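so the lab meeting is tmrw and i was supposed to have these ready like two days ago... anyway. pasting both below. for each one the top line is the aa sequence and the line under it is the structure tokens. i havent really looked at them closely yet so no promises
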Amino acid sequence: AMLNISDERLERYNINYCSLIVDRMADRLNVDKFEVKAVNPAEAMPPEADGTAASKIKDPAQEWVDELMEYNRFDGLQSDIAVAYLRDGMTFVMSQYDDVSKREVLAQELAYDGDTGMIVVYERGSASLIAAAVKIWYDVPQTVEDRLEGEANTSLYKRVNVYYPNQTDKYYSTDGITLVAMDAPEETIRMGKTPGVPVTAFYNKGGVSELTNIMPMQDSLNSALVDLVMAGRLTAFSVFFAVGVNMPKAVTPGMTIFKNIVDSTGAIILPQNVEEAQAQAAILGSAKLERIQGGDLSQIIAGIELIINQIGVISSTPLPGQMGGDSSSG
């Protein structure tokens, strides 16, 4: 049972370098500031009553952008965006106007993963103009208690919003397939202007994850880790091969294992003549006890180090042990 790790328990044996790679790549991507200017600064920034020149007054467009970024905590938002599109190949940011705060609110949305997430549809012949966006999510996800109680029907919680340039359609699903309209489409036109689809897409290398070429090596690394654990256990808790020896059920360090010829009661049979002594000597001489040695740990460790090194090379990301300092930039 100790060595039986060939089932789902293998998931315990992993060294997740994928997360480290994505995080270090994301650390290199940092937007400090958006610089904008009003279309007509002279009209947008009239002199103050005390005669202060307009050039010394903060540009209202820049001030609006700075306040927008601060309100939406762009420092944290940009980190979430970078991690998501590096890991998944793409991610999205949705904007909506908050009537209470009178501000635009930005929210990062993950790409569709086969169950939930965001999908965008582009205008025919366009690779950048979004015609519509679809968001799929669970409005009230199941709790851990629900799942422990055997609740398996998650479709009752599924929601779908379809965002068009001028309206938003809202649906729910009771079977995970059929969509039922919640209410009439919500018109998004304000002051006679169509805002467009409120979704911006961020793609990494055309939608390709940075982990595409790393996953095979990550799998190999996890497999090598299992080999190391198995070899280590066989070294620490050896398996014995016995011939003509009845091994005790509990083997402890330092114990002595005896081999005697005994009768049905367990009493030692002593030879009564030369012939019996020779026969018992032949039997005792044929008995052997050997230990099945584990693999060479140094070779397995060297293989693991090689895989880790190649992960760093292919991802162009210095990993621990591949650089002189702690800087992820190398």
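ok protien two:
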Amino acid sequence: TSAADEDAPSTTDGSEATGAEPAIADPSDDQMVRLASLPGRLAVASNGALAVISPDGLDVEPVEEDPGTVVAHGVWSHDARRLAWSRVTESGGDVVVRDVASGVDDVSELVGDPAFYLQWDAEDRALALLRADPGLAGVELGLVEPGAPAQRLGAAGPLFLSWSPGAPVLAVHAQDTEVLVLPLPATGQSAPDGMTPASVLVDSSGYSAPAWVDDTRIVAAVASGLVLLDVVSGEQAPLVDTGGGARFVLSPDRARLAYVVTGQSGATSPAGFTLGGTDPSQPATSAPPAGGPGLNVVEVATGAIEIVTPETPLAFEWSPDSEQLAWLEAG
């Protein structure tokens, strides 16, 4: 056969495909040069080992690859001076935080299951962790200060979290029923006045991590759509009326929210967050219309909505400068 015949796309039954199908090609030489010029390094956990690599996929530097050790979820601190990861050895699980300049590790032991998710606070003083709850209540939320024993904060099933950008406060979406704020003075920082531990803000809807617009307001999904919640006063302001749940991503500049409507999740959970809290405040009664059925963007300040595409993407993400939005559609 000719080269052209060999390169022709075909279906699974061997017949030649018709029409132009999207394909993922190897990066061009120009793209590789641009990737190589990007700053920083990626932490990649694969096959139980952890390495850091340059953005072009070259210059691989192993971080931990000891036999009998399983490593997962490497995450950089915001200042890129420390790298944290979850580790399982023959003696048990722990969270490791390495100072990149000195190579010194601070190790926090975990009793029971290892962490499957880690997230640094805004000041890089502590990490929130998620793991299977030893008490079988779904997912355990914990706090780790590098080198110190992990602290249990509570458990629910499932559980999503987000650190405040300027205070040691976690916004937590616990099971399918509530959004809470958890001030954490143990980190040595102070939280905004008026916050109390485990303040239940609102009956929630669907599973999604709350997003902080500023130090005292978060976006959360509720039964009617997306709302802005003041974590001090508990007041709610409607943002988008979706008539059900929504998946959303806040832009890095915290000015716009990309979202798709998902409807009610219908999911159930074995238990609520173990810390409890106060009664939720009453939700707002009206909000702007939801936009289109696909991917939409709403301005946080004005509520103005732009329909980006009528197709519902599998995933979507903002560029670091908040100027572009990338999304992935089913082929």
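from a quick look at the 2nd one: The longest strand covers residues 82-89. The CA atoms of residues 45 and 207 lie 26 Å apart. will dig more after coffe
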